[in-house]
């Protein structure tokens, strides 16, 4: 390849002419005489398609890993892009033979710039400033063909891998934001792709792209760009939260240096804002469903009498989606908090600029309420709300011998999985050896709420264990909280295994 590129300079001018003539012939194909026979037209199209495939394959192989050849061939990029635009139209992507050409053209485009920094910058600047309908990468990402998808995702990954400037363009440019949306859509669809398939490979490359955005500290900005007016959380934001959660689980983001600390602070601010907004939305939606007055904020523990067992007054269809996202946010906060605590424990002293992440979350306020107080109020409402939604099983309300609520056949409980468990787990972490937090929890009736969660719940595996752990942390070194527990007696029934059944409430003596 290197020999061909350097020994015969005239080769590149001939290649340039071939690409130029091919584009002219292909894009003016339908401008001929209307009286031409259909069979002749079909034959001409097949010939052009075969020629395009051969020329793209030749160019792709010539430029692979040879920078001088890439530089010579890059002048054909506009023509390759125009042909790729043609072969990624909706009608072309439905034709198998046209789809093969699109694959090879996309591979050629990717090979043109691989490991060539100057060309990457030129191409990326060009693509990020194109009108949306001209960005062929968007069309490729929308394709159902894995072999066309991989080169497109690889091109994006290669362009942003070594450059924060290009990564920033991916988030902030209009074309870049559109690419992110398409990537998130595709990753949601290919998450369960068979291992070793092209779709699975595309997913892994997409994950590498968003990992790079995490490392560059651009995820909070991307999350904001994905928002839609009057929607508390969008499907794309939920997918992004899943990727953030996965990244944090596999790659601890601890404040080891000023850059990482800055990234962690921005991410923590985003997570805190998300938690408050989603928690507040959920509380309002649940109150409307329960028919509770909006002024019922941070009230003491409430025992619902049997004569109040009613169907939901209003069911917010967005609530399960918001709760699903809230689970992810809670898990992310737990992960970054525990990672920071681990780093502090291992090195003896916390980061000078952060002190520690747990203190950061404990100091956050929304409408003069702390994160722990917002969490407690949501748990209190969830404890009343979830039993009111019957997912095919009889539900008995606390203190009631009557039947449960009317089944809601069109409701889905998927969004509520793990919600109570992760909220009470987060509470246990936030209040650990933090007397100020313990006191605020007591003052808003949180002790009783946590005690009522010491039960088995099939939607919340290990809820009881996490609730007991949180209760331990609330009582440790806090006589006032311990006194509250001493004043409370449980009412309910213990089974033969020593498990307190779900029909239980806590009341003061």
TrEMBL record:
It comes from the Eukaryota. InterPro entries: ARM-like (IPR011989), ARM-type_fold (IPR016024), Ataxin-10/CTR86_families (IPR051374), Ataxin-10_domain (IPR019156). Keywords: Cell cycle, Cell division. One of its GO terms (biological process) is cell division. Residues 419-501 form the Ataxin-10 domain. GO terms for cellular component: cytosol. Coiled coil: none annotated. It holds the Pfam family Atx10homo_assoc. Belongs to the ataxin-10 family. May play a role in the regulation of cytokinesis. This is Ataxin-10 homolog. It comes from Armillaria borealis.
